[in-house]
């Protein structure tokens, strides 16, 4: 297997932990993996991107432009910033939740819904999940990233048990059950 996954969103959505979990699952399954992340102004709700590259041997942690196999967008419009990584076979896993930037909340700009609708159809495969609704159903709105991991797991050839094992190891013990439930909800069709 060789897969390049670009995980994008805004600060506070759990992208770094989610990408760590993907890496640990790949390692557990016997693959080489490299990761690179950019936080930018993440602490202020700014853009966060994590490159995860999985193969028998990986030489660089950064996905070249036009070579992402999967883009996981934890926020509805965030994938628009990273269209340069897309190719004709790229799959988009899209959280339908919107986090409005300050310019939108202060009525200085509009949320680009038409642009999102136009570009999301340009991917080879589109999987949409209402991460917030499913996380609420699991028992904690902070489990959105784990919902998205469940959906991502359906797109990859790793054993489900490997995902569950790594989640149990990576998340704090007091929220393991909620995160397992969130993963299962994201994994379900």
Description:
This protein is α/β, with parallel strands linked by helices and 189 residues long. 37% of the residues lie in helices and 20% in strands. The chain has 7 helices and 6 strands; from the N terminus they run E-H-E-E-E-E-H-H-E-H-H-H-H. A hairpin with an 8-residue loop joins strand 2 (32-38) and strand 3 (47-55). It is globular and about 50 Å long.
List keywords for this structure.
189 residues, alpha/beta, six-stranded mixed β-sheet, 7 helices, 20% strand
Which helices and strands, and how do they pair?
Elements: E1 3-10, H1 15-28, E2 32-38, E3 47-55, E4 70-73, E5 91-95, H2 102-105, H3 113-120, E6 125-129, H4 131-138, H5 144-155, H6 160-170, H7 176-187
Parallel strand pairs: 1-4, 4-5, 5-6
Antiparallel strand pairs: 1-3, 2-3
Total beta-strand segments = 6
Range of strand content: 15-25%
Low confidence ranges: none
Radius of gyration: 16 Å
Strand-pairing-aware structural class: alpha/beta
Largest sheet: 6 strands, mixed
SSE string, helices as H and strands as E: EHEEEEHHEHHHH
Distance between the termini: 23 Å
The number of distinct helices, counting runs of at least 4 residues, comes to: 7
